Amino acid sequence: MKNAYLVAIIAGCAAAALQAAALTPTLVGIVLFSLAPLPLFVTGFAFGPLPAAAGGLVGALALLAAVNWQMGFVFALSAATAPVVLTWLALKHRPSADTTAHEGEVSAGGVQWYPEGRLVLWAAGLAVAVMLVTLLAGGGGLQSLRTSTASMARHIGEMLVGNDSTRTADVDAFVEVMVVLVPPAATLIWHMATMICLWLAARVVVLSNISLRPWAPFSALHFPRESLWALAAAGLLVALDGVSTPGATGGLWAYVNFAAALALGAMISAFVLLGIAVVHGLTAKLAGRPFILATMYMALILLQGVLMAPLVGLAIADMIFDLRGRAGGHAPSGSA
After folding, report:
1. Opening angle at CA 149, ends 146 and 154, nearest 5
2. pTM for this prediction
3. I need a labelling partner for 5 at 20 to 30 A (CA). Which of 32, 164, 279, 306 fits?
4. Which segment, 123-132, 166-175, 319-328, is predicted with the most confidence on average?
5. CA 270 vs CA 5, 16, 248, 293, 323: distances in Å
6. d(CA 145, CA 177)
7. pLDDT digits (tens, 9 = 90+) for 85-142
């Protein structure tokens, strides 16, 4: 256990160094910033959530001392919270003689482990919480957030049109779209980055033979059916009113719609991952599987958000019609 906390201290310092890369606004700095939770995830999956929490505390204190308290707070919120919560959940298990994977969970040695799909959904909830706490901690409210987002978007828009005064309407339209899209997009990116760190950490500990739990194949990922209602509810709230109403900047309803927009971004990210898992499952027996998967991942990188809607649709179809089960793949998802 002493070695565990020594590793935690090292991991906390490494995570803090990655977080500090945000002080350099470059593409490399953004990538390093996104990987900040990775050392803490590795610590959690190898030694448990308490060492991960200790590492998070070390990292937060290091940034507080080296930079300022705001940086330490952001680290604790955005980089340390998810590894602690998700490793605690991931290590939950129960004795079970039932080897049927109702939600793609793995069973080994008479023990059934917490389903990976629920970890993805918990991470989506954490993404919404992180964004809301960030907003409340800023103290400016929705109006301040929208004003700062609009200012940033206007600056970018003017750069894109070359400060052409005849294209003011185009810039205004760009600003309106960005004010709506930036908050849920930020939530989506945070969730996706967190899931990448979780997956990388799981691979590291498995390859190092220090994992505290077995992991199911990615193609076995499933969500409980209730997640469909969460996705639908968030989409419905955003469609009804949402943050797209510029005048709705005050009152409880505005915050409800803002939270719904954040939840929609996080749930889209979760269902994109499920859609990718469905592709992995459906192509498991195909000879051209490597080519298909490589093409899909290249398209995701090069086309960015274009494939998100088809992947979400594929994930929903799999949950309703059990596409992988019909194709002879993994067990269907079941209710919670």
Report:
1. 120
2. 0.89
3. 32
4. 123-132
5. 32, 26, 28, 19, 18
6. 14
7. 999 999 999 887 666 667 878 888 789 999 999 999 999 999 999 988 887 776 567 7
Q: Per-residue pLDDT tens for 146-162?
A: 777 777 777 777 776 66
